[in-house]
Design a protein that fits this description.
327 residues, two-stranded antiparallel sheet, alpha/beta, 40% helix, 8-stranded mixed β-sheet
Length: 327
């Protein structure tokens, strides 16, 4: 025997009528007229080829088949109502998962506070945080494994947009015995002849420092390339060399035992913000979080300032054609 093609409207009509025992009350609950409800019930019985209700002028009772029908379909309705409720919560940006690829310094120093503020009004939202270098962020965005990337702005691939959030001061960082400990500020020229402990190519810090050294004809004795922040900091603590690092790397990884002197030169800042694919429709909760990141205020640590529209002479959102090197 073929399975009848019943709609959720029809299933709900049967359940509501059985619960109320009255066509008038059930119709009001379903926001339809009694005649429409009556036709709906008759259509269900026709498709099922069985009576679900015994009707008299004074009373309306479920038949044995009606009881069995409600027992079998009630779970379907309950499950569908639960799932639709979850979906409507998703549409309203009250639930869902936000996948974010982020620079480690932003993951350590900025993102936790942003998440805490967002979760106060969105307690059912989940986050998936993946930290990595700037090229890792772009790769994950391009592959679709994350919707948002917290990274530094620079040369954007085609189809990507960038919303700036923060501007970080660069610092010259060295062992406390280094002559820089007596300085109040540095220039890029002060790195000339130094052994520079650098992040690997493909990171935002390396792109900025390489461009600055080239522009200002700074010749470093040699680079010591390291992949992790912990390795760089260990090398600096051992006095192996010096480094040029943005403020959030100092804040996020606790370099209080090292000398950190601000670099007072053009290009000695890093603008960080949110990157995403311009053509992609973000999930409701990711779009809500993007708006939150853009609108919320933070208490920036030393060497960090909030970027707002009009403060930098550029619009808040940059596309590929509009992005230039910072400073």
């Amino acid at each position: 025997m073929p399975v009848p093609d019943l709609t959720l409207q029809q299933l709900r009509a049967v359940r509501t009528l059985a619960a109320s025992g009255s066509f008038t009350k059930a119709a009001a609950a379903e926001h339809i007229s009694p005649s429409v409800l009556s036709r709906r019930i008759k259509e269900v019985e026709r498709l099922l080829r069985v009576r679900l209700f015994d009707r008299t002028t004074r009373q309306l009772d479920l038949t044995a088949a009606g009881h069995a029908f409600l027992l079998m379909t009630g779970a379907v309705l309950d499950d569908m109502d639960m799932r639709l409720g979850r979906f409507m919560s998703y549409v309203a940006a009250q639930s869902g998962t936000i996948a974010v690829a982020t620079l480690p310094s932003l993951a350590a120093a900025v993102l936790p506070g942003m998440m805490r503020g967002f979760l106060l009004d969105h307690p059912e939202v989940e986050f998936e945080i993946i930290d990595g270098a700037a090229d890792d962020v772009v790769e994950r965005l391009g592959g679709g494994t994350v919707e948002l990337g917290l990274t530094a702005h620079g040369d954007l691939p085609d189809g990507f947009c960038f919303t700036p959030l923060l501007r970080e001061q660069f610092y010259g960082v060295a062992h406390h015995s280094h002559p820089w400990s007596a300085r109040n500020s540095l220039s890029w020229a002060d790195f000339d002849g130094e052994t520079v402990v650098a992040t690997r190519p493909g990171t935002s810090v390396r792109a900025i420092t390489d461009a600055a050294f080239s522009k200002h004809s700074v010749s470093v004795s040699h680079h010591v390339n390291a992949c992790s922040a912990a390795t760089i900091h260990g090398l600096l603590r051992a006095g192996v060399g010096v480094a040029a690092l943005p403020a959030l790397k100092l804040q996020g990884f606790g370099l209080d035992d090292l000398v950190a002197v601000p670099v007072d030169s053009p290009g000695a800042t890093r603008v960080t913000g949110v990157m995403y694919r311009c053509s992609q429709d973000l999930s409701p909760v990711a779009a809500r979080f993007l708006d939150f990141l853009h609108a919320t205020e933070i208490d920036p640590p030393r060497g960090v300032s909030r970027v707002h529209e009009g403060h930098t002479g550029v619009p808040d959102t940059w596309s590929h054609a509009e992005v230039q090197l910072a400073e």
